[in-house]
């Protein structure tokens, strides 16, 4: 079968699919992959089409670009337009739409907006431009937040006074909780995020099985990792277990990275509330700079409008982020909303469910429709 | 920005700022290794790099696995590599 032949080890892939099919039997299962990197792998490799029809994957809120609400983008643009400011951002954030355009538009209108690979690049720009104010647009889960934290520690140690951070770091556990609480979603378990877990470890997920009775298996990014993790979830369910397991133990440790966690603790504290695109306000779900670092806090240095902006009417990112609808079910998918002209954030980053599906999914779906789902499975 | 890319530590550059030179697909750039302070990194070790920081120590087999699947990502990996190559986190000029 076409997609499996592209895998590193087609024999192992076939065996895993056979195991999943046997374990699933006649029952229906829905598993959510929390991480955008997994979503990308799933569409890139057509995993949904080699799985039996009874096993459905639902995409979760784990793309940090996709969860930034419009109001925060507007705030970023307001800071970028302050006189004397050099505004630095990861490339992915540049095209995220605010209510009146994105950072690229602000740049075209004269704001000094620069793309950086690392927060340390932003700090370097500050050191090289002592007569300018450099602001770094910090986004990301616990994978990225330690990098911002180390950068802030260095800025303080070196006394760099023209550097600040517009902090939008979010944490992984509260959105999982919000999804578990959401009434319109029935899930049988989770594929746990890979890279975030290298930092936070496995412990923070214990509530998923302990309080909500759902299994979670942290998975790697290879197609075989994802198939393996699905088989592990089904095995747990069939054996009547409900546990937090680690398929990606090659990289993820039970305790995570204690050093990174200590640095996070030193630099950041939890915000009382933070708005997530599509999920609304979630308490204690995002990070802000501790008062010891307030001289580096762009929200205190500049006037940020802080206005809450409702998503455009046509936009259904919220439902996509919660896994209620598939990307192609959004009314503007692929017509008004494309990676070139995104209406919603899920179409911007390559890890966003809509962009991943737009880029890779369609060809797989067309192939699957032509072949018919049953015959696809049969030719495995 | 969410991709972790595998690189090989070539040498330590500045122990105060915890910097090392790392080779990613034949190009070397400076990365920060402060998050792996307790891992006793040595030149030759493989690490997963995320926004200019070594995130985790991995073995060579894992590095090859990760590289193979990143290459299949096409554009997304190309963008990430280009971003990595654009990085200049110290003032020293580096070949490649
Ligand atoms: S197609 Fe566009 S507007 Fe619709 S959910 Fe996806 S990103 Fe949001």
Which secondary structure elements does this structure contain, and how are they paired or packed?
The complex is a heterodimer of chains A (380) and B (96).
Chain A: H1 2-5, H2 10-24, E1 29-35, H3 36-44, H4 47-50, E2 55-62, H5 70-80, E3 85-89, H6 103-108, E4 112-115, H7 119-128, E5 133-140, H8 145-158, E6 163-169, H9 173-181, E7 189-192, H10 195-200, H11 206-210, E8 216-218, H12 223-238, E9 244-246, H13 258-267, E10 268-270, E11 273-276, E12 280-283, E13 287-289, H14 298-301, H15 317-321, H16 353-371, H17 373-378
Parallel strand pairs in A: 1-2, 1-7, 3-4, 3-5, 5-6, 7-8, 8-9
Antiparallel strand pairs in A: 10-13, 11-12
Chain B: E1 5-14, E2 19-24, E3 27-32, E4 46-50, E5 53-58, H1 60-72, H2 75-86
Antiparallel strand pairs in B: 1-2, 1-4, 2-3, 4-5
Describe this structure in words.
Chain A is of the alpha/beta class and 380 residues long. Chain A has 3 domains: 122 residues, Rossmann fold (3-Layer(aba) Sandwich); 149 residues, 3-Layer(aba) Sandwich (Rossmann fold), CATH 3.40.50.11740; 53 residues, no CATH class. Helices cover 40% and strands 17% of the residues of chain A. Chain A is built from 17 helices and 13 strands. Chain A has a 5-stranded parallel sheet. Chain A has a 4-stranded parallel sheet with strand order 4-3-5-6, with helices on both faces. In chain A, helix 8 packs across helix 13. Chain A is globular, with a radius of gyration of 21 Å. The N and C termini of chain A lie close together (5 Å). In chain A, 55% of the residues are buried. Chain B is an alpha+beta fold. Chain B has one domain: SH3 type barrels. Helices cover 26% and strands 34% of the residues of chain B. In chain B, a hairpin with a 4-residue loop joins strand 1 and strand 2. The longest helix of chain B has 13 residues. Chain B is globular, with a radius of gyration of 12 Å. Chain B starts with a strand and ends in a 10-residue tail after the last helix. The chains are: A alpha/beta (380), B alpha+beta (96). The complex binds iron/sulfur cluster. Iron/sulfur cluster binds next to helix 15 of chain A.
């Amino acid at each position: 079968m076409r997609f499996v032949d592209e895998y590193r080890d087609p024999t192992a892939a076939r065996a895993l699919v056979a195991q999943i099919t046997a374990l699933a039997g006649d029952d229906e299962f829905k598993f959510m992959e929390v991480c955008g990197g997994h979503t990308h792998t799933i569409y890139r490799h057509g995993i949904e089409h080699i799985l039996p029809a009874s096993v459905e994957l639902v995409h979760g809120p784990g793309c940090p670009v996709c969860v930034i609400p419009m109001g925060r983008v507007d705030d970023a643009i307001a800071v970028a337009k302050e006189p004397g400011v050099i505004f630095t951002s990861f490339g992915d954030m540049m095209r995220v739409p605010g209510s009146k355009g994105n950072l690229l538009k602000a740049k075209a209108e004269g704001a000094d907006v620069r793309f950086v690979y690392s927060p340390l690049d932003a700090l370097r720009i500050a050191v090289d431009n002592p007569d300018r104010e450099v602001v770094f647009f910090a986004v990301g889960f616990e994978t990225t937040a330690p990098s911002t934290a180390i950068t802030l520690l260095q800025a303080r140690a070196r006394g760099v006074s023209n550097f600040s951070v517009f902090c939008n770091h979010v944490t992984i556990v509260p959105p999982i909780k919000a999804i578990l609480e959401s009434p319109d979603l029935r899930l049988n378990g989770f594929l746990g995020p890979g890279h975030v877990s290298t930092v936070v470890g496995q412990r923070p997920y214990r509530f998923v099985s302990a309080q909500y009775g759902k299994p979670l298996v942290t998975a790697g990014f290879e197609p075989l990792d994802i198939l393996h993790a699905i088989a592990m979830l089904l095995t747990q369910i069939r054996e009547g277990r409900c546990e937090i397991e680690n398929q990606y133990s090659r990289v993820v440790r039970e305790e995570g990275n204690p050093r990174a966690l200590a640095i996070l603790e030193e630099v950041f504290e939890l915000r009382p509330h933070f708005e997530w695109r599509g999920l609304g306000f979630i308490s204690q779900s995002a990070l802000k700079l501790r008062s010891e670092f307030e001289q580096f806090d762009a929200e205190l240095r500049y006037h940020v409008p802080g206005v809450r902006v409702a998503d455009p009417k046509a936009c259904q990112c919220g439902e996509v982020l919660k896994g209620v609808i598939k990307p192609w079910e959004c009314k503007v998918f692929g017509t008004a909303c494309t990676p070139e002209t995104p209406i919603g954030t899920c179409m911007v980053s390559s890890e966003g469910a809509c962009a991943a599906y737009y880029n890779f999914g369609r060809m797989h779906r067309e192939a699957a429709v032509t072949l018919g789902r049953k015959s696809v499975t049969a030719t495995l | 920005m969410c991709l972790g890319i595998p690189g090989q530590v070539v040498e330590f550059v500045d122990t105060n700022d915890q910097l090392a030179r790392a080779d990613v697909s034949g190009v070397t750039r400076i990365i920060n290794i402060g998050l792996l302070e307790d891992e006793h990194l040595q030149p030759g070790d493989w690490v997963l790099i995320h926004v200019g920081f070594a995130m985790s120590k991995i073995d060579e087999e894992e590095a090859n696995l990760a590289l193979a699947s990143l290459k299949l990502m096409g554009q997304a990996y190309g963008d990430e590599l280009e971003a990595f190559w654009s990085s200049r986190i110290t003032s020293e000029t580096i070949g490649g």
